[in-house]
Fold this sequence. Notes:
single chain; alpha/beta; Jelly Rolls; 2 domains; two-stranded antiparallel ribbon; 5 helices; 15 strands; 20% helix
Amino acid sequence: MATDGLRRAGVFVCTVEGQNVLIFTAGEWVEEASIKPLLATSDFVVACDGALQSCVEHTIQPDLVIGDFDSVPDDVLNAYVEAGGITQHVGDQSQNDLAKALRWIGDARPTSCTVIGATGGDPQQEWANMLTCASQDFDITCLSKSVTYRFLMPGVNHSIDIERGAEFSLFALPEARNIHLSGAMFELNGGVLNMGSEGLHNVVKADRLSINFESGRLVLLQPRPGLTGGETTSA
Length: 235
Protein backbone atom coordinates (compact mmCIF):
# COMPACT_ATOMS: atom_id res chain seq x y z
CA MET A 1 0.00 0.00 0.00
CA ALA A 2 1.51 3.27 -1.09
CA THR A 3 0.24 6.77 -0.47
CA ASP A 4 0.74 9.12 -3.38
CA GLY A 5 -0.51 12.55 -2.48
CA LEU A 6 0.04 15.88 -0.80
CA ARG A 7 -1.57 17.73 2.07
CA ARG A 8 -2.61 21.12 0.76
CA ALA A 9 -4.37 23.70 2.93
CA GLY A 10 -5.46 21.00 5.35
CA VAL A 11 -6.90 18.77 2.62
CA PHE A 12 -5.30 15.49 1.58
CA VAL A 13 -5.05 15.25 -2.18
CA CYS A 14 -4.42 11.73 -3.43
CA THR A 15 -3.97 10.29 -6.89
CA VAL A 16 -5.47 6.79 -7.18
CA GLU A 17 -5.94 6.84 -10.93
CA GLY A 18 -5.15 3.39 -12.29
CA GLN A 19 -4.96 1.91 -8.78
CA ASN A 20 -6.93 -0.73 -6.89
CA VAL A 21 -8.72 0.82 -3.91
CA LEU A 22 -10.08 -1.06 -0.90
CA ILE A 23 -12.58 0.64 1.42
CA PHE A 24 -13.57 -0.56 4.89
CA THR A 25 -16.80 0.66 6.47
CA ALA A 26 -18.32 -0.05 9.86
CA GLY A 27 -20.87 -2.69 8.86
CA GLU A 28 -20.50 -6.46 8.85
CA TRP A 29 -17.15 -7.68 7.54
CA VAL A 30 -16.57 -10.83 5.52
CA GLU A 31 -14.22 -13.56 6.68
CA GLU A 32 -10.51 -12.78 7.03
CA ALA A 33 -9.62 -15.33 4.35
CA SER A 34 -11.39 -13.12 1.80
CA ILE A 35 -9.87 -9.90 3.10
CA LYS A 36 -6.21 -10.96 2.97
CA PRO A 37 -5.92 -11.38 -0.82
CA LEU A 38 -7.70 -8.05 -1.33
CA LEU A 39 -5.18 -6.33 0.93
CA ALA A 40 -2.34 -7.97 -0.98
CA THR A 41 -3.56 -6.61 -4.32
CA SER A 42 -4.76 -3.18 -3.18
CA ASP A 43 -2.72 -0.05 -3.84
CA PHE A 44 -4.67 2.20 -1.49
CA VAL A 45 -6.74 1.37 1.61
CA VAL A 46 -9.35 3.66 3.14
CA ALA A 47 -11.18 3.31 6.46
CA CYS A 48 -14.48 5.14 6.89
CA ASP A 49 -14.55 6.71 10.36
CA GLY A 50 -15.55 4.00 12.88
CA ALA A 51 -14.16 1.25 10.62
CA LEU A 52 -10.71 2.26 11.85
CA GLN A 53 -11.46 0.43 15.11
CA SER A 54 -12.08 -2.81 13.19
CA CYS A 55 -8.96 -2.21 11.10
CA VAL A 56 -6.89 -1.93 14.26
CA GLU A 57 -8.39 -5.17 15.59
CA HIS A 58 -7.39 -6.89 12.32
CA THR A 59 -3.90 -5.29 12.35
CA ILE A 60 -4.70 -3.32 9.18
CA GLN A 61 -3.09 0.10 8.77
CA PRO A 62 -5.19 2.13 6.28
CA ASP A 63 -3.54 4.74 4.09
CA LEU A 64 -6.36 7.16 4.91
CA VAL A 65 -9.23 7.55 7.39
CA ILE A 66 -12.10 9.70 6.18
CA GLY A 67 -15.32 10.93 7.83
CA ASP A 68 -16.58 13.29 10.49
CA PHE A 69 -14.91 11.18 13.21
CA ASP A 70 -17.98 10.89 15.39
CA SER A 71 -17.78 7.06 15.48
CA VAL A 72 -14.11 6.33 16.09
CA PRO A 73 -12.73 6.55 19.67
CA ASP A 74 -10.33 9.45 20.15
CA ASP A 75 -7.55 7.22 21.46
CA VAL A 76 -7.77 4.95 18.41
CA LEU A 77 -7.70 7.91 16.01
CA ASN A 78 -4.85 9.58 17.89
CA ALA A 79 -2.78 6.37 17.87
CA TYR A 80 -3.35 6.04 14.13
CA VAL A 81 -2.17 9.61 13.50
CA GLU A 82 0.85 9.17 15.78
CA ALA A 83 1.81 6.10 13.73
CA GLY A 84 1.90 8.26 10.59
CA GLY A 85 -1.67 7.74 9.42
CA ILE A 86 -3.44 10.42 7.41
CA THR A 87 -6.93 11.68 8.17
CA GLN A 88 -9.43 13.59 6.04
CA HIS A 89 -12.19 15.27 8.01
CA VAL A 90 -15.43 15.76 6.06
CA GLY A 91 -18.16 17.17 8.25
CA ASP A 92 -20.99 17.12 5.70
CA GLN A 93 -23.92 15.51 7.56
CA SER A 94 -25.97 15.10 4.38
CA GLN A 95 -23.77 12.16 3.34
CA ASN A 96 -22.66 9.06 5.20
CA ASP A 97 -18.98 8.20 5.46
CA LEU A 98 -19.00 5.72 2.55
CA ALA A 99 -20.48 8.42 0.30
CA LYS A 100 -17.70 10.78 1.39
CA ALA A 101 -15.03 8.18 0.63
CA LEU A 102 -16.46 7.25 -2.77
CA ARG A 103 -16.82 10.88 -3.77
CA TRP A 104 -13.22 11.56 -2.80
CA ILE A 105 -11.92 8.46 -4.61
CA GLY A 106 -14.13 8.86 -7.67
CA ASP A 107 -12.55 12.20 -8.53
CA ALA A 108 -9.31 10.30 -9.23
CA ARG A 109 -10.72 7.41 -11.31
CA PRO A 110 -9.42 4.19 -9.72
CA THR A 111 -9.06 1.01 -11.77
CA SER A 112 -11.13 -0.93 -9.24
CA CYS A 113 -12.89 -0.27 -5.96
CA THR A 114 -13.92 -2.92 -3.44
CA VAL A 115 -15.99 -2.14 -0.34
CA ILE A 116 -16.11 -4.30 2.80
CA GLY A 117 -18.59 -3.59 5.59
CA ALA A 118 -21.28 -1.83 3.54
CA THR A 119 -23.91 -4.43 4.51
CA GLY A 120 -25.25 -5.95 7.71
CA GLY A 121 -26.49 -4.21 10.83
CA ASP A 122 -28.86 -1.29 10.28
CA PRO A 123 -30.94 -2.03 7.12
CA GLN A 124 -31.44 1.70 6.53
CA GLN A 125 -27.69 2.21 6.48
CA GLU A 126 -27.30 -0.80 4.17
CA TRP A 127 -29.80 0.64 1.70
CA ALA A 128 -28.03 3.99 1.84
CA ASN A 129 -24.71 2.28 1.10
CA MET A 130 -26.07 0.26 -1.84
CA LEU A 131 -27.74 3.28 -3.40
CA THR A 132 -24.56 5.29 -2.89
CA CYS A 133 -22.55 2.66 -4.77
CA ALA A 134 -25.14 2.58 -7.55
CA SER A 135 -24.92 6.35 -7.98
CA GLN A 136 -21.16 6.42 -8.66
CA ASP A 137 -19.69 6.61 -12.16
CA PHE A 138 -17.09 3.86 -11.75
CA ASP A 139 -17.22 0.11 -11.11
CA ILE A 140 -17.62 -0.94 -7.48
CA THR A 141 -17.68 -4.36 -5.84
CA CYS A 142 -19.27 -4.79 -2.40
CA LEU A 143 -18.69 -7.96 -0.41
CA SER A 144 -21.22 -9.18 2.14
CA LYS A 145 -21.22 -12.48 3.98
CA SER A 146 -23.89 -13.88 1.65
CA VAL A 147 -23.62 -11.97 -1.65
CA THR A 148 -21.12 -10.20 -3.89
CA TYR A 149 -22.59 -7.04 -5.43
CA ARG A 150 -20.96 -5.76 -8.63
CA PHE A 151 -22.07 -2.30 -9.76
CA LEU A 152 -21.19 -2.15 -13.45
CA MET A 153 -20.69 0.84 -15.72
CA PRO A 154 -21.88 1.07 -19.34
CA GLY A 155 -19.50 1.24 -22.30
CA VAL A 156 -17.16 -1.38 -20.81
CA ASN A 157 -16.61 -5.01 -21.75
CA HIS A 158 -17.01 -6.80 -18.42
CA SER A 159 -15.51 -10.31 -18.21
CA ILE A 160 -16.46 -11.87 -14.87
CA ASP A 161 -15.08 -15.17 -13.66
CA ILE A 162 -17.89 -17.15 -12.01
CA GLU A 163 -17.96 -20.90 -11.53
CA ARG A 164 -19.93 -22.77 -14.19
CA GLY A 165 -23.37 -23.67 -12.82
CA ALA A 166 -23.38 -20.82 -10.30
CA GLU A 167 -26.49 -18.70 -9.90
CA PHE A 168 -26.55 -14.93 -10.35
CA SER A 169 -29.02 -12.10 -10.86
CA LEU A 170 -28.63 -9.02 -13.03
CA PHE A 171 -30.74 -5.94 -12.24
CA ALA A 172 -31.08 -2.53 -13.85
CA LEU A 173 -30.82 0.74 -11.89
CA PRO A 174 -33.24 2.05 -13.06
CA GLU A 175 -32.84 0.99 -16.71
CA ALA A 176 -30.06 -0.44 -18.87
CA ARG A 177 -30.17 -0.54 -22.66
CA ASN A 178 -28.56 -2.52 -25.45
CA ILE A 179 -27.29 -5.23 -23.10
CA HIS A 180 -25.17 -8.08 -24.42
CA LEU A 181 -24.90 -10.94 -21.92
CA SER A 182 -23.21 -14.21 -22.87
CA GLY A 183 -22.11 -17.28 -20.93
CA ALA A 184 -25.47 -17.64 -19.16
CA MET A 185 -28.53 -19.86 -19.44
CA PHE A 186 -30.58 -16.80 -20.43
CA GLU A 187 -28.53 -14.51 -22.65
CA LEU A 188 -29.22 -11.05 -23.99
CA ASN A 189 -28.34 -9.67 -27.41
CA GLY A 190 -29.12 -5.98 -27.41
CA GLY A 191 -31.89 -6.32 -24.84
CA VAL A 192 -33.24 -3.86 -22.31
CA LEU A 193 -33.72 -4.36 -18.56
CA ASN A 194 -35.98 -2.22 -16.42
CA MET A 195 -35.85 -1.90 -12.65
CA GLY A 196 -37.80 -4.74 -11.07
CA SER A 197 -37.61 -8.54 -11.04
CA GLU A 198 -36.28 -8.88 -14.58
CA GLY A 199 -32.92 -10.64 -14.48
CA LEU A 200 -33.63 -12.68 -11.34
CA HIS A 201 -31.96 -16.10 -10.92
CA ASN A 202 -29.92 -16.76 -14.04
CA VAL A 203 -27.25 -19.49 -14.25
CA VAL A 204 -23.67 -19.44 -15.55
CA LYS A 205 -23.12 -21.86 -18.44
CA ALA A 206 -19.53 -20.99 -19.42
CA ASP A 207 -16.18 -20.35 -17.72
CA ARG A 208 -17.04 -16.66 -17.39
CA LEU A 209 -19.76 -14.13 -17.99
CA SER A 210 -19.36 -11.44 -20.63
CA ILE A 211 -21.45 -8.31 -20.16
CA ASN A 212 -21.54 -4.99 -21.96
CA PHE A 213 -24.30 -2.42 -22.31
CA GLU A 214 -24.76 0.97 -23.86
CA SER A 215 -26.40 3.07 -21.15
CA GLY A 216 -27.81 2.97 -17.64
CA ARG A 217 -26.47 1.02 -14.69
CA LEU A 218 -26.43 -2.69 -13.87
CA VAL A 219 -25.81 -4.52 -10.62
CA LEU A 220 -24.84 -8.20 -10.65
CA LEU A 221 -25.63 -10.19 -7.50
CA GLN A 222 -23.68 -13.38 -7.00
CA PRO A 223 -24.46 -15.57 -3.96
CA ARG A 224 -21.26 -16.51 -2.20
CA PRO A 225 -20.28 -20.20 -1.86
CA GLY A 226 -22.33 -22.42 0.41
CA LEU A 227 -25.71 -20.79 -0.29
CA THR A 228 -28.51 -22.46 -2.22
CA GLY A 229 -30.35 -20.93 -5.16
CA GLY A 230 -33.99 -20.55 -5.91
CA GLU A 231 -36.21 -20.70 -8.96
CA THR A 232 -34.53 -19.69 -12.20
CA THR A 233 -36.26 -17.15 -14.42
CA SER A 234 -35.32 -15.60 -17.75
CA ALA A 235 -33.42 -12.33 -17.93
